Amino acid sequence: MRPKNESVRNRGLAGRESAPRALFSLACLVCAVLFLFVPSLSAQTKNSCLDCHSKLDPPLHVDPAGVAQSVHTQKGIVCTTCHGGDSTSDDMDVSMSPKKGFKDAPTRAQIPAFCAKCHANAAYMRDFNPSLRTDQYSQYLTSIHGQRLAKGDSKVAVCADCHGVHDILPPNDPRSSVYPTNVAQTCGKCHANAEYMQPYKIPTDQLALYNGSVHHADLVSGDLSAPTCSTCHGSHGAAPPGVASVVNVCSTCHVFQAQLFDSGPHKDAFNSMGLPGCVTCHSNHGIKHPTDAFIGVEKGAICVKCHDVGEPGYEAASKIHAALVNLDTSIARSREILNRAEQAGVEVGPALLDLNQAQDDLTKARVSIHTVELKSVNENVDAGLKVTETTYKAGQKALAEALYRREGLIISLVISLLVLLGIVLVIRKIESKPQE
User: Fold this and answer.
1) 391 phi, psi to nearest 5 deg
2) What integer pLDDT is reported at residue 435 of this predicted model?
3) pTM above the 0.85 mark?
4) Residues 55-70, mean pLDDT to the nearest whole number
5) 120: which residues sit within 8 A by CB, 6+ positions away?
6) Residue 97 DSSP SS3
7) 6-56 pLDDT, tens digit each
8) Nearest to residue 388, comparing CAs of 331, 340, 339?
9) pLDDT tens digit string along 314-332?
10) In degrees, to the nearest 5, what angle opens at C-alpha 188 toward C-alphas 184 and 191?
């Protein structure tokens, strides 16, 4: 009978000898699997469409890098999904065979319906992005672009003009042609091209005007909610707002201003003359940030474009401008004296905080000019002036305290110097006495 230790040792040796056999068997199994499946994997990844078109010249050239990063490729949509055919074959008679479902590239007039086969199919799109709208095609048909396309005008924008073709990126990708900061440039490819737009007899300075507007400035500074072309005109259902609906479009952002405009006399006056509401004073594409000089009767003021000297509107504009300037000047006056007091070391925090209320009142007054009523403006201006009067007095008091502190410090220093001088004189007098 073998000792117990020897038996354990023999089992260990047997285990070590069987380990290489197990590894060898596993390696053989892996090789067999790879041998069976690699050909099919290779066939799945092969794309004869891209292999060929990547070597062709435009317009048949397709950039592999653009295809690889497109939203379609990322979602598993490949060439044959849209065009049919067989991308696993290098034989063009096979890869482009109608029997394989091959469909030639759509014409410009066919593109919207071509894209809509998927994008208007809610059940199909739900598998990729349940939140994505599927009414783009129906909207496009109502747009100025879709209506003209239906009449045979193939120059109007279709899906590929705005989104691209094989390199389409999602709208939230900053590189996308329809990312908020890129929308204006995308629209401008056509609408800023005077030669291309010549048959339509419409202006082509919209992009240049927009690039100089406050909306564009806000957008490029990082406010992606700032308006761009599609905000006001729509995207797939793009159409110019009618004269009567301009206020409705602007009020999607400027709600309070629109309510004030509706309550004032300008609404009926503009309607009777066929003038668009907001655009009449602010323009459309080149909207500038308004200042107090915008309203009034001085050179450059918008009011004098319609109102002449002696008219009630002219007088109201002059008084409204004066009221705004008065409050703005009073705020600056209070802020200046409070800042001086603060620099002198006096606590004026509460007064500076109160002055913010006056600034809010000025903002409200500037907004209330949309009523074009002096009473409405003065209500906010008067409230602000009361605050500036209080804060200015607080600044005067703070400066007086600073002066008092300074004078007290000087007097203290003088007294201290006199005391010190007296001590020095006493010491010298003591030292000058003869020794007994």
Assistant:
1) -70, -30
2) 63
3) no
4) 94
5) 134, 135, 136, 137, 138
6) coil
7) 444 444 444 444 555 655 565 556 555 444 444 444 444 689 999 999 999
8) 331
9) 999 999 999 999 999 999 9
10) 130
Work out the angle at residue 44's Cα, subtended by the Cα atoms of residues 41 and 49, and round it to the nearest 5 degrees. 145
Cβ count near 303 (within 10 Å): 22
Residue 213, both tokens: 């507007």
CA distance 152 to 106: 15
Tokens (6 digits) for 94: 């096979």
Percent of the chain at pLDDT > 90 equals 75
- Nearest Cα residue to 133 out of 232, 220, 236: 236
- Residue located via tokens 């629209």: 187
pLDDT, tens digit, for every residue of 82-113?
999 999 999 999 999 999 999 989 999 999 99
User: Is there a contact between 389 and 355 (Cβ–Cβ < 8 Å)?
Assistant: no
Q: Are 266 and 275 in contact (CB under 8 A)?
A: no
Q: Are 229 and 237 in contact (CB under 8 A)?
A: no
Residue type, 379: E
The H or E element spanning position 342 is helix 312-343
Rounded CA-CA distance 436/433 in Å is 9
CA separation for the pair 258, 381 (Å, rounded)? 21
> How many secondary structure helices (H) and strands (E) does the chain include?
23, 0
List C-alpha distances in Å: 246 to 239, 261, 267, 381. 12, 12, 12, 29
Residue type, 430: I
Residue-level length of the chain: 436
3-state secondary structure of 215: helix
- The pLDDT tens digits for 147-183 are 999 999 999 999 999 999 999 999 999 999 999 999 9
CB 63 within 8 A of CB 166: yes
Task: State whether the Cα torsion 146-150-153-158 is positive or negative.
Answer: positive
Q: List, in order, residues 6 or more apart from 164 with CB less than 8 Å away.
A: 66, 70, 177
Tokens 């050239």 locate to 61
Burial readout 66-94 (b: 16 or more C-beta within 10 A, e: otherwise): ebeebbbbeeeeebbebbbbbbbbeeeee
**DSSP 8-state class, residue 245:** G
**N- to C-terminal Cα separation, the chain:** 127
When comparing pLDDT for 304 and 13, which is higher? 304
